[in-house]
Amino acid sequence: MSPQINDKPTISIFGSAARPENWLTFYERLGVNDVTFEVIFVGPNSPNYVLPNNLIYIKSNVKPAQCFEIGARRASGSLLMWTADDSLFVTPNPLDKLYQTYLGCDDDNVLIIKAQ
Fold first, then answer.
1. The pTM is what?
2. CA nearest 103: which of 9, 4, 1, 32?
3. Which of 8, 43, 50, 86 is a plausible cystine mate for 18, CB 3.0–4.6 Å?
4. pLDDT digits (tens, 9 = 90+) for 15-56
């Protein structure tokens, strides 16, 4: 059975991250969404500021691929999205739009990628 939008899943966004100076901008560009989300950044450089409650930092000095693995294992959401800490979202409510696309696929094992 496919999920419905009112189920409000949590999307876990995770990635290898070495640029804490980008993290708040990344977070702010996610905007306001109906779906809940968490961001998990894993990397060697700690931020020198307080993170929002749903932005989690895990310190690790391993290679980027291993950081992705750590982030994926820490994720608590029912949907996963990998990213990099220098990515920026350019449309409003990107996670709601992503979730609507997921619902339209009617397949629990879908991988959504849009290349330009």
1. 0.87
2. 4
3. 43
4. 999 999 999 999 999 999 999 999 999 999 999 999 999 999
